[in-house]
Amino acid sequence: MRGRTGNRTSAPSFIKSKLNLIYMKAKKTYGINGLLEWHGLVSGNGITMRVDFVNGSVTAYGVSPATFTTKDELTQYIIENSEQYKSGRIRLVRCVEMPEEKAVAEVKAEAKAEEPAVAPEPEVEEEAPAEVEKKTVSVNDPGEAKAYLVEHYGAEPAKLRSIKAIKDCAEKNGVVFEGI
Questions:
Q1: The dihedral of CA 75, 78, 83, 86: what is its sign?
Q2: Residue-wise pLDDT tens digits, 67-107
Q3: Which residues contact 82 (CB under 8 A, 6 or more apart)?
Q4: Distance (Å, whole) CA 177 – CA 180
Q5: CA 2 vs CA 8, 41, 44, 74: distances in Å
Q6: In 3D, which of 63, 3, 68, 7 has the Cα closest to residue 33?
Q7: CA–CA separation, 165 vs 175, rounded Å?
Q8: For an engineered disulfide with 66, which of 22, 53, 71, 157 has Cβ 3.0 to 4.6 Å away?
Q9: Beta-bridge partner residues of 59
């Protein structure tokens, strides 16, 4: 959302508080039938923002609408209260509920706080390492796995260009991906 100066602006706090009460965290995909692309302004409740609908297609098998996907609750609120959505020009194509997640910075801060100060370890007889329980995550493609690692573990996207790099990073973080 852009103000008159072209800088990003924040929504009023009363709208954000309404969003937390009304909307659950969800990844929503909106579509416009009959168009391959649409770059337009959407207004809802006095807030105007630019939305880019892309990736529409016409093939021998059918027509796919131009789509726009967002997890941002404010964007969802504006689109769903716009005249285009209410008239049926913009429609909800898909809605995937997302679990409540902590910000990556909060998780890192908690992990750092839980780490004990380095103290000399007493010598103990070596035992076989215990199996660490790994978290299994189902994904459809390497891109989804990469996005999961970036979002949940703060991995650098530039270092996750191959499937091998994605699997190595997942192993370091105790994650196993199903589907790649």
A1: positive
A2: 999 998 889 999 999 999 999 999 999 998 876 655 445 55
A3: 42, 43, 44, 90
A4: 7
A5: 5, 11, 14, 13
A6: 63
A7: 13
A8: 53
A9: 62
The answer to whether the CB of 109 falls within 8 A of the CB of 149 is no
d(CA 66, CA 54): 5
User: Could you give the CA distance from residue 105 to residue 103 in angstroms, rounded to a whole number?
Assistant: 5
Phi and psi angles of residue 174, each rounded to the nearest 5 degrees, phi first? 75, 35
CB of 90 within 8 A of CB of 79? yes
CA separation for the pair 178, 180 (Å, rounded):
6
pTM beyond 0.90: the answer is no
What is the rounded distance in angstroms from the CA atom of residue 136 to the CA atom of residue 138?
Answer: 7
Distance CA 142, CA 124 (A): 41
Angle subtended by helix axes 104-114 and 142-153, to nearest 10: 60
Q: Where are the domains of the chain?
A: 13-97, 101-109+132-180
Give the tens place of pLDDT for each residue, 128-161. 455 567 888 888 888 888 889 998 888 888 888 8
